[in-house]
Amino acid sequence: MTSILILNGPNLNLLGTRQPEVYGTTTLTDIENLCTAHANKHNIELKFFQSNHEGALIDAIHDARGTHDGIVLNAGAYTHTSVALMDAISSAALPVIELHLSNIHAREEFRHKSFIAPVAVGQICGFGAHGYELAIDALVRHLG
Ligand code: CA2
User: Whole domain around residue 105: which residue ranges?
Assistant: First the structure.
């Protein structure tokens, strides 16, 4: 059975509790439930994980090799800063869909740069929580 890891980075645990004008009122638990329901429809296995720590995210990417077939990654602010995450993705040699709730290209200039994009299959951003379903669909289609 196809297995997907949904990996979420720093501060995403705060979703739905602060800054609703930017990130909406949906919580990360709501998103996990949405993803699980969507995965069940596709008959795929899904693991959902969030960490505020760069090293923990890197470990999760390393551990995904041999366990999962691909990753949906919302690396949060590490998207714009982390060469280490980029290297982890390259070394894991697993397909990664980069995902953002907000349209990072319509926001501050520092959010336009992504260290994930060059090593990802593609990027989905600006569709809020629905983006996670789009990313699962994109990954399933990519995996064939
Ligand atoms: O749009 C996204 O999904 C982001 O990855 C979210 C990151 C941001 O740094 C990226 O540029 C784009 C920030 C996540 C912070 O989430 C919060 C949620 C509620 C309250 C405060 C932060």
Answer: 2-143
* pLDDT band (50, 70, 90) for residue 127: very high
State how many domains the chain has.
1
The rounded mean pLDDT for the chain is: 96
Q: What is the CATH number of the domain that holds 45?
A: 3.40.50.9100
Q: What is the pLDDT at residue 22?
A: 78
For residue 18, the ligand 1 atom closest to its alpha carbon is 20
Of the candidates 74, 50, 90, 65, which has an alpha carbon nearest to the alpha carbon of residue 128? 74
Which DSSP symbol is given to 15? T
Question: Of all protein residues, whose CA lies closest to atom 22 belonging to ligand 1?
Answer: 11
pLDDT of residue 21: 84
- CB of 36 within 6 A of ligand 1: the answer is no
- Please count the helices (runs of H) and the strands (runs of E) in the chain: 5, 5
Q: What is the model's pTM?
A: 0.97
Looking at residue 61, its pLDDT comes to: 98
DSSP 68: B
Nearest to 64, CA basis, from 5, 116, 7: 5
Enzyme catalytic residues: 23, 100
